[in-house]
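Marked as duplicate of an earlier ticket. Keeping the data here for the record.
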Amino acid sequence: MFETFLARVEFEPNTGCWLWTGAPSAGGYGVIKHDGRYQKAHRVSWALHHGFMPDRDVKVCHRCDTPACVNPAHLWLGTQRENIADMVAKGRNRPPAPQLGSKNPQAALTEDDVWAIRHMLRNGSFTQPQIRRAYGVSPMTINRIARGESWRHVHFNWPFEAVSSLQEKAA
């Protein structure tokens, strides 16, 4: 088993990591069949080099923060709490920047649409149902825009050139 394991390892001289070249799992961790089932390669590395497989509630953590690394010198045992504390101490817990407005892949509107909708609602030229149908969004979407609960970064002085074309869209 040890020779089969090492055949799937590439030694990285700059970092000292042993990079798993076999099958990857979600998150970049290696996967290998061991004891009749698929397991993460870094856990199997621990077992091969230390003579025992840790309990399922014990994590095999990385000092190097490289998921594909299986170097036993880069691995340590810890609880989930200790692993999270290590992540926080290394500054790897920053949440991704929020994708506001049209940068959000699920956005059905653009900032210009929202600006026009707010102006149409403010001057009373169209009702919420008319606007909702014109833009193909839910009543809740229009309601939240009207109350300022969503698209907060779009203000009434939002730069906008084509007001009339968007108002035509809602007509």
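See parent ticket for discussion. The chain has a mean pLDDT of 88.
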